[in-house]
Design goal:
single chain; about 230 residues; alpha+beta; 2 domains; eleven-stranded antiparallel β-sheet; 2 helices; about 20% helix; globular
Length: about 230
């Protein structure tokens, strides 16, 4: 029969474990509930999914960053890291939270640099090579307007607005390709070409860096559960 002391110790450990679990779960709940306060969403385009050519530059070839602004809109900054002056960004695709009304989204280029000659929003209606179901299309036109590595600042920016509650994380969603044989689900896509090689035409996809804050913190909360358990049993 366990002594009263052993029983008390077991009860104390049980209470401590419950407290630790409650703290971890509260962290998950609080952060998940705070998704409206979004942090920057960064996408590093580092993986080819269509095309046989490998860029002459090291990956990531470009980075797209979505950030909340003080006026309730979202700023999209695209940084070009291509090093070969013959390589250029021909087009980009992005997605929007499917619970939001894409037809109300306004996309306006606001910075100097190569101007996109086509900006369009079409919910689940934009293709990207073999992938389909993107919402936002950005396209650069003639050679002089291509987004190439010889542009001095290598940066273009767009202001995204028109939807109540819009924030950076509204764009951290994958394309909705509803075709029966669909195999491509990505957060975004970019088309890279080469002036001197007509057959050089590749599509690349990004990796999120880092995870959006709610997902990251929720993951940390889950990781904390076994940690607190071990601490309480030490």
């Amino acid at each position: 029969m366990a002594s009263n002391k052993d029983a008390c110790i077991g009860k104390v450990f049980t209470v401590k474990q419950r407290v630790a679990l409650s703290i971890a779960m509260a962290l998950i709940t609080i952060v998940t509930a705070s998704q409206a306060i979004a942090g920057p969403v960064r996408m590093a385009f580092d993986t080819i999914y269509a095309g046989d050519t490998i860029p002459n530059s090291d990956s990531p070839w470009l980075i797209a960053t979505f950030e909340d602004t003080d006026n309730g809109n979202v700023l999209l900054t695209i940084e070009n890291f291509l090093q070969d002056s013959t390589e250029h960004i021909k087009a980009m695709r992005f997605n929007l939270d499917p619970t939001l009304d894409a037809s109300s989204l306004n996309v306006l280029q606001i910075e100097d640099g190569p101007m996109a000659n086509r900006i369009a929003v079409d919910e689940n209606g934009v293709g990207a090579g073999p992938a389909w179901g993107f919402d936002i299309r950005l396209k650069w036109g003639a050679r002089g307007d291509h987004f190439s590595s010889d542009d001095l600042d290598r940066i273009v920016q767009f202001e995204l607005s028109g939807i109540e509650g819009l924030n950076a994380e509204s764009f951290a969603f994958m394309n909705q390709d509803r075709r029966p044989d669909a195999e491509h689900s990505y957060y975004a896509a970019a088309n890279i070409g080469n002036f001197g090689q007509p057959n050089y035409d590749i599509w690349v996809r990004p990796t999120l860096i880092p995870l959006p804050l709610p997902a990251l913190m929720a993951g940390l909360g889950l990781m904390a559960i076994p940690f607190f358990r071990r601490r309480m049993m030490a």
